[in-house]
Design a protein that fits this description.
Blueprint lengths: L2 E9 L5 H11 L3 E13 L2 E7 L2 H14 L4 E4 L5 H13 L5 E3 L16 H9 L5 E2 L3 H8 L6 H12 L6 E4 L7 E6 L4 E6 L10 H14 L4 H17 L18 E2 L4 E2 L12 H4 L6 E4 L10 H10 L4 E4 L6 H17 L3 E5 L2 H6 L4 E4 L6 H8 L4 E6 L2 H10 L3 E4 L16 H11 L4 E4 L7 H6 L4 E4 L1 H4 L4 H12 L4
Parallel strand pairs: 1-2, 1-4, 4-5, 5-6, 12-13, 12-19, 13-14, 14-15, 15-16, 16-17, 17-18, 18-19
Antiparallel strand pairs: 2-3, 7-8, 8-9, 10-11
Helix pairs in contact: 1-7, 2-3, 3-4, 5-6, 7-8, 10-11, 10-18, 14-15
Bound molecules: the ligand Cc1ncc(COP(=O)(O)OP(=O)(O)O)c(N)n1, ligand 3NM and magnesium ion.
């Protein structure tokens, strides 16, 4: 398991601090450890008081966990005073810890101070230079930068000033500004925006802790910051959306919203967690130029398993099970067999339309169209590691699919096809080229692709071709697949 350490204060109310961090770590499937800097006495209405730990005892906790268990990422939250900050910074340096998320906790949602004002200098001088990223909200960014923030321009200025204190990145969380919840990430060169719809709730206690803990968990899981930020943001969005009103004030968010559905009282499977694709998914497709899709009615009476075996023998890199008229039982039975055949041949196996079948047979991926489950929702259901292919016939559809979590685009119909009666008119090679330019995930051309036009499809930019009849309907399936590959590798 990846291991994540939080160095923060205990929240007796359970919604922020150490408690929020550990719940978040659990939701991301990482092993959570805690170094407690202070014990606060608080509930949803406010903080009635806190007792800080002696600084050297904070250091002792850090030494004990880091020398034995170690951590793939660490986050800091409430550090209470300058002595603790200096001690934490020293230990971070001693253990050469790089994946450090600093959440500069100064004031609670309730308005209560959680850090002595004199400690700000220690935070800037000692800890920020060690941070991979610092995650102030607007109020904290104002304190750290010394400027008032009212708009995006001010955010940029503040981010640059804070960057000057030494962190490798700055995320200013715009949740406290009005309108959409926009977070701004500054990497020293550019400002990136991450948007999510605003959740209308008073249950915002612990949002900063939760976001930074999610970020640390993602870093521990090996994601780069640019990838981790939208995932942490998505996780927080779901936690806010599913927050129950506990207590009379600002209630906590629902850290385990991805696991437990309060409306049905059902434990959700882990695959229901908010998830974003891994970078790796698209890379799994690299070099796989021939994508063969089944279609029993075009197979001249040969069983689908035989067709697929022959296509694999000819070098098909991806197989899709697409049988519109089959029962679920047929799909899972044959699906299981096709998955086995694909693995044996080092190919990928994708199921068309049916997420449930794809999950049931442990397929490598699922392919969905524009009328199927929305991409984000599908991604949540299948988890981060399964390949998600999405059909698109315009640049806009392709861009949206990519943004929402698709791993590849099936663009079509490139040419006229009778195989899919509802496919619409041919979209052409020019539009294919535009789609390819617009997205950074692989694009497969589909629809009416034959041996005599496959090379043009690749020249227009496609990463490969997806075909039904040209392979499934060929007299010699293996030979047809081999010829496609030969042509696409530059042969004639
Ligand atoms: C690789 C690939 N691209 C596109 C499609 C078409 O999917 P969809 O638009 O959902 O239509 P149906 O195939 O379900 O009729 C595909 N299957 N594969
Ligand atoms: C399944 C499918 N999807 C299409 C799309 O445009 O999205 S065209 C298509 C049929 C592809 O079959 P053939 O290779 O026989 O033309
Ligand atoms: Mg479909």
């Amino acid at each position: 398991m990846k291991k994540v350490l939080t160095i923060a204060g205990s929240d007796s109310g359970g919604g922020a601090g150490i408690q929020a961090d550990l719940k978040t770590f659990s939701a991301f499937g990482v092993y959570g450890m805690s170094v407690i800097t202070a014990v606060t006495s608080q509930n949803t209405l406010g903080v009635s008081g806190f007792r800080a730990m002696p600084a050297e005892f904070v250091g002792q906790q850090m030494s004990d966990v880091l020398s034995d268990i170690g951590a793939d990422a660490t986050k800091t939250g409430m550090l209470a005073n300058a002595d603790i900050i200096c001690e934490v910074a020293e230990k971070i340096r001693e253990f050469k810890h790089e994946n450090l998320v600093v959440d500069p906790v100064m004031v609670a949602t309730s308005g209560d101070r959680l850090m002595e004002p004199e400690a700000e200098k220690a935070l800037k001088d000692k800890l920020l230079p060690l941070a991979l990223v610092v995650t102030p909200n607007i109020a904290e960014a104002e304190v750290l930068s010394g400027i008032r923030i009212a708009n995006r321009e001010d955010v940029e200025k503040a981010a640059q000033i804070i960057y000057g204190w030494g962190p490798k990145g700055v995320i200013i969380k715009g949740g406290h500004l009005s309108g959409e919840a926009i977070d701004y990430y500054y990497d020293g060169k550019e400002i990136y925006e991450y948007r999510s719809p605003r959740v209308d709730t008073k249950n915002t206690h612990g949002t900063g802790c939760t976001f930074s803990a999610a970020l640390a968990a993602c870093l521990a899981l090996g994601m780069p910051l640019k990838k981790a930020i939208p995932i942490a943001k998505d996780y927080l969005y779901l936690a806010l959306l599913n927050a129950d009103s506990l207590g009379a004030g600002h209630g906590p968010t629902n850290h385990l919203a991805g696991y437990f559905d309060h409306s049905t009282k059902a434990i959700r499977p882990a695959k229901g967690l908010p998830a974003a694709k891994t970078e790796n998914n698209s890379r799994k497709l690299t070099g796989r130029k021939l994508y063969v899709i089944t279609g029993q009615e075009f197979a001249k009476g040969r069983p689908v398993t035989e067709v697929v075996s022959q296509a694999l023998a000819g070098g098909a890199g991806i197989i899709q099970l697409r049988e519109k008229k089959w029962t679920t039982r047929q799909l899972v039975e044959v699906g299981r067999e096709l998955q086995r055949l694909a693995r044996e041949n080092n190919a990928l196996f994708i199921v068309n339309d049916r997420i449930d079948v794809a999950l049931a047979v442990d397929a490598d991926g699922v392919h969905l169209g524009q009328d199927d489950m929305p991409v984000r929702m599908a991604r949540r259901v299948i988890g981060p590691d399964m390949i998600l292919g999405i059909s698109a016939e315009t640049v806009e559809e392709a861009l949206t699919a990519e943004k929402e979590g698709a791993d590849y685009i099936g663009f079509g119909p490139v040419f006229h096809t009778d195989t899919k009666p509802d496919a619409g008119t041919a979209r052409g090679l020019e539009l294919l080229a535009q789609v390819k330019k617009a997205v950074s995930i692989p694009v497969y051309g589909i629809g009416g692709i034959k041996l005599d036009n496959a090379a043009e499809v690749l020249s227009a930019g496609a990463d490969g071709v997806a075909v039904i009849t040209a392979v499934v309907g060929a007299d010699d399936i293996t030979l047809a697949a081999q010829k496609f590959i030969h042509i696409m590798e530059g042969g004639r």
